[in-house]
Amino acid sequence: MTAKIIDGRAIATQIRTDLQQKILLLSTKPKLAIILVGNDDSSLIYVRNKQKAAAQIGMKTQLYHLEENTKETDLLQLIRQCNDDSSVNGIIVQLPLPEHINTNRVINAISPLKDVDGFNPYNTGMLQNNEKPYFIAATPLGIMTLIESVCSDLCGKNVVIIGASLIVGRPLATLLLNQECTVTITHIHTRDIKELTRKADILVAACGVAGLVKNDWIKTDSILIDVGINREKGKICGDIDFESVAASAAAITPVPGGVGPMTIAMLLQNTVDAYFLQHNL
Ligand code: GUN
Known about the structure:
It is built from ten helices and eleven strands. With about 280 residues, it is of the alpha/beta class. It folds into two domains: about 25-110, Leucine Dehydrogenase, chain A, domain 1 (Rossmann fold, 3-Layer(aba) Sandwich); about 135-260, NAD(P)-binding Rossmann-like Domain (Rossmann fold).
């Protein structure tokens, strides 16, 4: 075992403590509206964790838990109401949504100024243009902080991201490109994937396949970021086979305790930023 463990839990705890101190000084408290449609098991857990983490730092949350069969028009109406409510600073709609609802139309309806998930096309477009968006998606933002904790100069690094999702792979690729990395995104149709991953100075696995990345997938002394949260035989494990790669990598994020805690910390950070933005502070 030579790889340095990148302790996402410790970094996230520090961020949350700093946010708590900031909120203590405010006369009114930042508020996050969380919209959940239906009863997806993972979404229920994620939403509960977000509410708990917000409460711990003195942030308010308002949960709108809607029925699975909610009409899209009613959901859009609720989003407009939250957009217009000056006591609400941030709005998130937990994904995935039920199939009868058009996710893009819903995300498009969130005011870019309250879009603390950073999914609205205004915010993703600004990121693409290498301009400053109001908000950047929490998981990619958290991953950038983790990478920067072990790599001070990203310029020219070869990065491979396994997984082209809208929530992780694509925005992360843009963030890294904006930092002058050479970025490859792989997906289900990518050929000879190992040929690509073996050249990666930084490898990010975000595909949701337990233990996919083994030692023969990686470059010696590379930085490995594991975004996977897979449940196997009652245990949580990542997309990277930790035991297999630990002797060859320079640094690796554990699962749990790596990327996961950073995602919530960054959502809280975005919501505090939204409060300051809306109060012209
Ligand atoms: N589902 C999985 N990840 C996320 C996320 O970061 N935000 C929202 N809203 N839904 C998700």
